[in-house]
Amino acid sequence: MRREYAGLLALLVIVSATVAATRDDPPALYKLEKTVPVPGTGGWDYLTVDSEGRRVYVSHATCVEVLDADSGELKGKVADTSGIHGIAIASELGRGFTSNGKANNVTVFDLKTLKPLATVSTGKNPDAILYDPASRRVFAFNGAEASATAIDAATGKVAGTIDLGGKPESGVSDGAGNVYVNMEDKDEVLKLDANKLKVLARWPIAPAKTPVSLAIDTRNGRLFVGCRSKSLVVLSTETGKTVTSLPIGGGVDAGAFDPETKLVFCSCGDGTVAVIRQETADKYALVETLKTRSGSRTMALDLKTHKLFLPAADFKAPADQPKARPTMVPGTFSVLIYGK
Q1: Radius of gyration of the chain from Cα atoms?
Q2: CA 123 to CA 142: how far, in whole Å?
Q3: Cβ distance 300 to 307 under 8 Å?
Q4: Is residue 197 included in any domain, yes or no?
Q5: What range does the domain containing 110 cover?
């Protein structure tokens, strides 16, 4: 009887532990749905999803690879974008814009044909780029010149330059005439007037450091600042005050906010995406650390399907230098698609 009782007790303990583990580990919010191979060589930086036009624009060395957002099919490319960093879309004008870091200019292209329409000179090394619908201007943030070049999206003419006083990284627009941009080397976020082309405010983010990624919740007036100090800082778009902060992975480089699902995303070079739920405008909780691929530091969100797109590749150190910094393996570039 004692042995039977002991065996039954052990079984109950195992079952209870299994139930508890199941209860503590909720099902993943996101999972890998598809891997889309992309031909060609060279690295990447930002990518952009045009949720209305159903296209994904992926920076790739000296061109933009254009994918169908639903099938993943390669639809074409925008050529001659030397050292491309980012892509901005002005759907109502039928135009796209690329920031070409090595050429120190912006390429204007037709969204239907993908053919270049013009090139516009900027400051040195234009990096992040965005379209502000309120002013109908494109802002290219010049990483090596501490400035932003504003371009009239309809005419392709330079509207002016803003002295930022530091190295800009990601930027966002609130759609109401304000543009926000991270100052990576100053540990602050700037608020810009998109029409008057001037700095309205400078907001420190201490104790966080090295702000890189940026996303916005326009309804609640919140900025989501991903920092290389492994933290996400939530700021008010009106006062610049810190609402809260949460831990994220290492090497963050891109962020996004889904206004329908109330999820904030931070993609990190350590092969993770922090998925954070907005419970209220002032309360947030980390709900998942999505495992991706090492080096997949950038990301784009499709607001229609709520899917995530992340560039990826294999990296390997030379056989004769095993301790050397790994380099990208030719022919391994792809786009990972994660869905709910």
Answers
A1: 22
A2: 6
A3: no
A4: yes
A5: 80-204
